[in-house]
Amino acid sequence: MPLRRLTQGLREFQQQTFAQRREFFARLEIEQRPKVMMIACSDSRIDPGIVLKAEPGELFMVRNVANLVPLHRPDQQHHGTSAALDFGVNALRVQHIIVFGHAGCGGIRALLTRQQIEVEGPSFIQPWLNIADEARRRTLLIARDRPLEEQLRLLEEEAIKTSLANLLSFPWIEAGVAEGRLRVHGWLFDLHDGEVRAYVPATNSFQQLTPELAAELSTLAGEPA
Q1: Contact 41, 66 (CB under 8 A)
Q2: Phi and psi dihedrals of 213, rounded to 5?
Q3: pLDDT category, 66, cuts 50, 70, 90?
Q4: Residue 186, C-beta contacts closer than 8 angstroms, at least 6 positions apart
Q5: Highest CATH level, class, for 33-218
Q6: Distance, CA of 45 to CA of 192 (rounded, Å)
Q7: How confident is the model at residue 120 (pLDDT cuts 50, 70, 90)?
C-alpha cells in the first residue's frame, strides 16, 4: 500500500535523519534563507532535490505541469507560480532562479501533439500549456519534417527558453537581472543518462552542466568568477 510505504519512510527519516541532525533542523525551524529558487515539473519521476543532492532549506521549490513560467499579469486572479516568484525574489531575496525541465515530459508531448487529456468537465491543462505556444511554433518552424522524438527534444528546450523570457516580464526580476544581483538559468535533466544540460545564452544552446560552466553562468555582480 503506497501510504503505508510512505509512513515507513517517515519513521526512517525521524529515526535516522532528524534525530541525528536536530541542531540543523532547529535552525531551519527559525527561518529559511535559500539562495536558489527552482521551477520544476510536477512529474513524479523527477525530483530536483534528489538529483542535485540539495539539503533542506537550500532550494525554494515550485512545481507545476511542464515547469512553465507565465507572463507577468498583475490582476486579481489566482497565480500560484507568480505568487511564488514574488515571495522568492522580494521576500526571500533568492539570487538564482532555475527553470528545471526534463526529457520525456508528458506536458510537452501534449503541447506538441495537441493531445487532449480526458477529464470530466473543463480542463485546466491545455490553457496552462498554451503558455509555451510560442515555443511550439518555433519548434514546428525548425523541425516540422523531423521525427516526433526530435521535435519533442527541441520543444523541451524551447519551452525552457520561453519561460526564461517570461521571467523577465516581471519588473522586479528584470531589474534584479539588469543590476547583476539576480540570475536566471535554464537546465534540462535527462533521466536516461542522468546528465543535466544548461542553457548558454551566448551560443543559444544547451551544454552539459559542469562546475566550470555553472560558475561562468552564475557569477553575480561583485562576486569573483
Answers
A1: yes
A2: -65, -40
A3: very high
A4: 98, 99, 101, 157, 160, 161, 163, 164, 198, 199, 206
A5: alpha beta
A6: 12
A7: low
